[in-house]
Amino acid sequence: MLGGRATLSERTVELRRSESLAEPLESAVPSGPQVRTITAAAMGTVFEWYEFTLYAAMASILAAKFFSGLDPSISFIFALLTFGVGFVVRPFGAIFFGRLGDLIGRKRTFMITIVIMGLSTFAVGLLPIYETAGIFAPILLVTLRVLQGLALGGEYGGAVIYVTEHVERNKRGLSTSFIQMTGTLGFLTALLSIQLVQALASQSAFDAWAWRIPFLISIVLLGLSVRVRLQMHESPVFQRMAEQKRLSGSPVRETFGSRQNLKLLAIALIGIGGGMSVVYYNAVLYPLFFLSRTLNVPMPVANLVTTVAAFCSIPMIWFAGWLSDRLGRKPVILAGFILGLVATFPIFHQIANLANPALAKAQAETLVSIQTDTSGCSFMFNPLGNRKFTSPCDVARQVLSAASVNYTRVDRPGSPVTEVRVGDWIISVGAPESLNQASFSRDLMAAVKQAGFGAAGNPDGLDQAKIVGLLLVLLLAMALGYAPVGVAMAEMFPARIRYTAMSFPYHFSSGWIGGLLPTFAFAIAVAQGNIFAGLWYTIGWLIVGIVVTGLFYREKPMEAE
Q: Does the N terminus or the C terminus of the chain have fewer Cβ atoms within 10 A?
């Protein structure tokens, strides 16, 4: 409201919000039938995320089984494609299955998605490996991964919309928060299944054939999920539209052919979705990468810390969903974005000090610089793994970044010599054509280690607990900025195109903006010569999210249908 005069819609929102705040807590709790609806939708989505994240958890095994006979450069591209293609195709799955959901119904559509997802995962356990099928083995694997990504693009939106259209407005935030937490539960379930198989089988048996079991047992989970979903009824909103012949004849054209809808899509994708994606990945996935790769913390310790923190964040997601029912979606989402903006840099600096104090000490005491003609320094963004960085500047930056060294660049225009200073050490090389990469890298790494870099992070129990506490601050920002997003997007669009219109911006932002966060963060960190510089990717999108959501998102109750 500007100028002191509220519109009718604004007064309606405030009235409903005031009524909501006055209601007792019990009235905001879903009823028995609604709990069953939520459970059915959430169970299927947990299963979807179990299957989707199983690939990431089994990446090393899959690489050895399916890419072992390829040329190294092609093998690397295929390996990255297998992991990343699921993110890339999610928006296309959102459009395809979103259209189906608006044409044939919510229930039937996400029944299709879960069957595709389940059979694709089960089939991985039956695939021939490269030694027996040659190039067809990785091609089949990538094909199954594409099917999984497409199915996931249609699953989430259907689950959120299905629950949203079954419950009253003052219960939607809490109800859909159970679906919002399924990514964490699916990830943890996938890890548990792998660890259980590894505990029961020897390492040689696991490497030879038992790696297939986590994929094969998904057929049991698929059967349970399908059985539960067969007992579900179609959304009452969709049923009413079908009876009244008010369904959209062309949901995709109606979604993207209207200027008003395009404006809402932009707000949902760039503002709400952009901020949501980075605040989620910044709290849930990036800390594991930062601890294990940047701070050199042993993977079991990094997994333990992030897993404990993830478990503790589940009540936060429920709380944030409930809070959005009391205060509204917009203020809760903005609170999460703002907390993430304020906390990100201090939290990661404190984590570095606790997880690897030797690295922090070396960073503070040792000045490192690369003095070269900076025109030979590339922007090292390489999402497909098909670029090679061979100039002296790029080789030096790769070595320094691998050792988590902060450094500065000093431009020497026209100089054929690249000089790297590590404290009192000076390593010089000539023109790029005369560069011996192996010798240069070896000498530079020796200087880096002599200066105190490269030590393993080994936080004790108390420091691990402190790191969990710090991560909980980021996870609180995640919960606030993530839990209300699904229902907020669902409430933005009319029911006749809701499946298509809500699914596309959510999966585009989470798949492309959030999914590319580690890649962009690494490229920015290398370009700036600072292990924390990659956090600017998160900060930038949070600023965009705060501005766009704050200025242009108009929260409104879902229309009566």
A: N
DSSP for 296-354 reads ---HHHHHHHHHHHHHHHHHHHHHHHHHHHHH-HHHHHHHHHHHHHHHHHHHHHHHHHH
Which residues, including other chains, have CB under 8 Å from residue 369's CB and lie 6 or more apart?
407, 408, 409, 410, 420, 421
**pTM of the predicted model as reported, rounded to 2 decimal places:** 0.83
Angle separating helix axes 461-482 and 329-355, nearest 10 degrees: 160
Closest CA to 346 of 546, 529, 539: 539
User: What CA–CA distance (Å, rounded) separates 51 from 220?
Assistant: 12
- Residues whose CB falls within 8 Å of the CB of residue 410, separated by 6 or more in sequence, listed in order: 369, 370, 371, 372
Structure tokens at 283: 């709290």
DSSP state of 244: T
Phi/psi at 421 (5° precision): -105, 120
Task: Kindly provide the b/e burial profile for residues 333-344, where b requires at least 16 CB atoms within 10 angstroms of the residue's own CB.
Answer: bbbbbbbbbebb
Any idea how long the chain is?
561
* β-bridge pairing 418-422 and 425-429: antiparallel
| Tens digit of each residue's pLDDT (9 = 90 or more) over 138-183 | 889 989 988 988 998 888 888 899 888 988 888 899 999 988 887 7
Neighbouring C-beta atoms of residue 539, cutoff 10 Å: 15
